[in-house]
Amino acid sequence: MKAHPIFARFYTALERAVAEGEREYREETAGRAEGRVLEVGAGTGANLAFYRPDAKVMATEPEPNMLRRLARRARAERPGTLVVRAAAEALPFPDATFDRFHPFRMPNAWLAGPHVVGEAVPDDGGGAGPSVSPRLGPAEG
Question: Which domains does the chain have, with CATH numbers?
Answer without folding.
Answer: 5-118 (3.40.50.150)
